[in-house]
Design a protein that fits this description.
By secondary structure, the protein is α+β, with helices and mostly antiparallel strands. It is built from 13 helices and 35 strands. The longest helix has 19 residues.
C-alpha cells in the first residue's frame, strides 16, 4: 500500500497461490526490493526492484541455475549496497556482490571446508561479525570473526554435550516418482555401517507447504543412532522448488504426493540400501497424515508406523479453520480441495485415511495431544478402536496437557522412548530400555490401555432432535465479577471479567467485559425472554469488530478486521442459544438434574458453523469460589469439534460459579473462570 494524502492506494498484490514479499528500500529510498513469483509464466521467485510511484518493476536476479526459488539477499548497513544473494538448493549456493566480504568468506570456508557458514550480527563499522558454522554432523559452533586480522575467537556451542564424533552424515539423493517427477531428498546412513540391506525409517515433513534442508537434523540423527537409514524427501507440494513444483501437489494429498514418498522407498530398495521387510514410516502433522495414508493406501509397504498428531479426516481438518483465517481458508481449498462442492467433498472423503482403516495391516502407534485443535482426539480414538476390533497391533500415547505437537520435554522424552521400543520390536533397530525416573513415570501416564478406548459417541439427528434442550428458567438481572486464568505452554496468564445482565423488557442484554493481555474485549449478547434464543451478538477487541444477527432461517453479519470486511451468511432452521457472553447462564437455565443428558445448538463465530454440544451432568460436587461454598451440578459439555467445557452450577441459585474449558483456537491452552462476587 502507498499513502496518498489521506488514503491508502494499493500498488502491488499477488494471488493466493503466488508469493510477494518486500525486502528493503534501495539506497536512494525511492524503490524497494521485492521477492515475487507473480505472473502466469513465472515459476521461481526472483528478486525485483519496484517503483511505488510508477508501478514499474525491473529484474535484479533469479536462480542462475534455474532450479530453485530466490533464497535471500544481504545488504551492508553502512553503504546499503548488496553484499550477496543466496539460494537453497540441495545445499546453499551463494553469489557475492562485494569482493571484500567474498574474500573473508573464502578465508572462513578454507578453515571449515564442507560446512555451512553464516555471518550474523556485526559491529557498527562492519569489521567484526558473529559467525555460525554448522553441518550435518555439527549442530553449530559460534565464533567472533575479525575481518581485519582474520582472527576467529570461539564463543560457544549451543549443544556442548552432544558427541558430534558419533553423528551420521546426511547425503543428497534424487529419485523419480510415479510420473517421472524428480524428487529431491536427504538420506542419513548410520555412521560406520555398510549401506546395504538396512532397516529404513521414512520421515515425511509436516506442512505440507514447507521443506527439509541439508544440515544437522536431531530426529534423523536419533533414529540413525538407533540403526536406521533415514529418508526425508521434499515431495511435490514442498516449498522452495518453484511454483510448478508446489502447485503439482494441489489436490494430491494421498495420491501423487504419497507416490513421491512410496517411490523413495522403492528407489532405496532397488539400490540395495533398504531391506524391504524392514521399512517403517514416522511423521507428524502432514507427515502424520502421510503416515496414515501410507498404511492405508499402501498397506504392504510398511512394517511399522508412528503417526504423531496426524490429520486423518480432511473434511474435519478444513472444517476447523476459524474465520480469522479466512484468507487461509481460500488457500486450503485451492491446495487441498473444496468441500463445498460435490466433487471436492468426494475427493476429500476418498483421501481421508480414517475412511480406509479396514485396509491397515501395519502395526501402528498413534500419538495424540488431548487438546489438539487441528486433529481431534476423537479421530485418534476411532483409529484405535477400528484396529483393535481387527486384531491389528496398535499402541496409543495420549498427553492430556498437549495440543498439536508436544512442548513439555518430559512428554517428548517419554514419547521417543515408547517409539524407539515400538520400532525396534517391528523393524529390528536398537532401543535404550533405561530412562530417568520422571520419564518412566510420565510414560506410564501417557500409555493408554486400548481396551478402555471407546468409539466416540456420535448421536444421530433423531436422537439430538429428541433431546434438544430448552431453558426452563429465566435469567436474573445483576452484575458479577470473575477471575480468569489461562494456562498455555507452561505459562499462567491472569485475567478478569465483569458481567452485566440487564432486563430490557422483551429481551435480556448480557455484557461480558474482559481484561486480557491484548487489551479489553467486549462481548454482548441479546437474547429473547423465556426462550433465551439468540437475537444478536456484538464483539469488540482491538481492531476486530463483529456483528451477528439471528433471523428466521438464516444468520447474517459482518466481521471487520484491520479495515477488511468479511460477511457472515449462514442458513439455519435450528433453534440456537447464544454462544459467547453468558453462554454458561443459558446452560444453567436448562433443567439440570443428576444424570441429566441433553443437546444444545449454537452458532460458533470462529468456525462460522452450527455446533452441537452434548450436555451431561456427571456428578454433584461441593466447591469453593469467592469465599463461599456451593453445592453444584457438574455439567460437562462436549462438541464433535473437540471443544470440552466443564461448568459447576449452583443447585440453589442456578449461578455458574466455575468454568473450565480447553481452547481449540489456542493449541493446548486451557481457561478456568471462577466467580469472585
Amino acid at each position: 500500500m502507498r499513502v496518498d494524502e489521506d488514503q491508502l492506494v494499493k500498488i502491488y498484490d499477488c494471488g493466493p497461490l503466488e508469493e510477494c514479499n518486500d525486502v528493503a528500500f534501495d539506497k536512494e529510498n525511492k524503490r524497494f526490493y521485492l521477492i515475487t513469483n507473480k505472473g502466469t509464466n513465472v515459476n521461481f521467485t526472483r528478486l525485483m526492484l519496484f517503483d511505488p510511484d510508477s508501478g514499474n518493476e525491473s529484474m535484479v536476479e533469479n536462480d542462475p541455475e534455474n532450479r530453485v526459488d530466490f533464497g535471500g539477499v544481504s545488504f551492508s548497513d553502512l553503504s546499503r549496497e548488496m553484499i550477496l544473494t543466496f539460494y537453497t538448493d540441495a545445499k546453499t549456493r551463494r553469489y557475492w556482490k562485494d569482493a571484500g566480504f567474498e574474500a573473508d568468506f573464502n578465508v572462513l570456508q578454507e578453515k571449515f571446508p564442507g560446512m555451512e557458514i553464516s555471518m550474523g550480527s556485526g559491529d557498527k563499522m562492519e569489521r567484526k561479525f558473529m559467525v555460525t558454522v554448522s553441518s550435518d554432523t555439527d549442530p553449530a559452533s559460534v565464533y567472533l570473526f575479525d575481518r581485519d586480522t582474520k582472527e576467529l575467537t570461539f564463543q560457544y556451542r549451543p549443544r556442548p554435550k552432544l558427541p558430534i564424533e558419533h553423528l551420521s552424515p546426511m547425503q543428497v539423493v534424487n529419485y523419480l516418482s510415479s510420473d517421472g517427477l524428480e524428487i529431491p531428498a536427504y538420506l542419513t546412513i548410520p555412521k560406520g555401517m555398510n549401506p546395504k540391506n538396512l532397516p529404513l525409517l521414512v520421515i515425511p515433513h509436516g506442512g505440507p507447504w514447507a521443506r527439509d534442508y541439508w544440515g544437522y537434523d536431531a530426529e534423523a540423527q536419533f533414529w540413525s543412532n538407533r540403526g536406521y537409514a533415514v529418508l526425508q524427501m521434499n515431495f511435490r507440494g514442498s516449498t522452495g522448488y518453484g511454483k510448478a513444483f508446489l502447485d503439482s501437489g494441489n489436490l494430491e494429498w494421498g495420491d501423487k504426493m504419497q507416490d513421491d514418498i512410496t517411490w523413495g522407498v522403492k528407489y532405496l530398495v532397488e539400490q540395495g540400501i533398504a531391506d524391504p521387510a524392514r521399512v517403517g514410516i514416522l511423521g507428524g502433522s502432514y507427515g502424520g497424515y502421510a503416515t496414515l495414508a501410507g498404511v492405508t493406501f499402501t498397506p504392504d509397504l510398511y512394517k511399522a508406523a508412528v503417526a504423531f498428531v496426524a490429520p486423518s479426516n480432511l473434511n474435519t481438518l478444513l472444517g476447523s479453520i476459524p474465520p480469522y483465517w479466512e484468507s487461509a481458508r481460500t488457500f486450503f481449498k485451492l491446495r487441498m480441495g473444496n468441500p463445498d462442492t460435490e466433487e471436492g467433498l468426494a475427493r476429500l472423503e476418498r483421501q481421508s485415511p480414517l475412511n480406509h482403516v479396514e485396509k491397515i495391516r501395519t502395526p501402528l502407534m498413534v500419538v495424540q495431544g488431548a487438546n489438539d485443535p487441528r486433529v481431534k482426539q476423537s479421530e485418534a480414538d476411532q483409529i484405535i478402536v477400528a484396529m483393535r476390533e481387527r486384531n491389528i497391533p496398535v499402541e496409543y500415547i495420549l498427553a492430556d496437557d498437549e495440543g498439536h505437537g508436544f512442548r513439555r520435554p518430559v512428554n517428548n522424552m517419554a514419547y521417543m522412548a515408547a517409539a524407539e521400543e515400538f520400532l525396534a520390536k517391528h523393524l529390528g533397530g536398537r532401543f535404550q530400555k533405561s530412562m530417568k525416573p520422571d520419564v518412566e513415570a510420565r510414560l506410564k501416564e501417557l500409555r493408554v490401555d486400548i481396551s478402555t478406548v471407546k468409539m466416540p459417541e456420535k448421536a444421530d439427528a433423531a436422537d439430538i432432535k429428541s433431546r434438544l434442550a430448552k431453558p426452563v428458567r429465566d435469567l436474573v438481572a445483576g452484575k458479577y465479577n470473575y477471575r480468569m486464568q489461562m494456562s498455555i505452554q507452561g505459562q499462567e496468564i491472569e485475567m478478569a471479567m465483569t458481567r452485566t445482565v440487564e432486563d430490557k423488557g422483551d429481551h435480556w442484554l448480557i455484557s461480558d467485559l474482559s481484561t486480557t493481555p491484548m487489551g479489553e474485549a467486549k462481548d454482548v449478547n441479546k437474547v429473547a425472554k423465556i426462550s433465551l434464543l439468540a437475537i444478536q451478538r456484538n464483539i469488540e477487541q482491538g481492531q476486530v469488530k463483529m456483528e451477528i444477527l439471528y433471523g428466521k432461517g438464516k444468520i447474517e453479519g459482518i466481521i471487520n478486521m484491520n479495515g477488511q470486511q468479511m460477511p457472515i451468511n449462514i442458513s439455519s432452521e435450528d433453534a440456537l442459544l447464544a454462544d459467547g457472553a453468558g453462554f454458561d447462564l443459558l446452560v444453567a437455565s436448562l433443567p439440570l438434574d443428576k444424570n441429566y443428558l441433553g443437546y444444545i445448538k449454537v452458532f460458533d463465530a470462529q468456525q462460522q458453523k452450527i455446533v452441537t454440544y452434548k450436555v451431561h451432568v456427571d456428578d454433584m460436587e461441593n466447591i469453593e469460589a469467592g469465599g463461599h461454598s456451593y453445592d453444584t451440578y457438574r455439567a460437562k459439555l462436549q462438541s464433535e469439534e473437540g471443544h470440552n467445557i466443564t461448568m459447576w452450577v449452583d443447585i440453589k441459585t442456578s449461578k455458574t460459579v466455575k468454568i473450565s474449558q480447553n481452547l481449540p483456537q489456542l493449541a493446548g491452552a486451557t481457561l478456568v473462570t471462577v466467580l469472585t462476587d
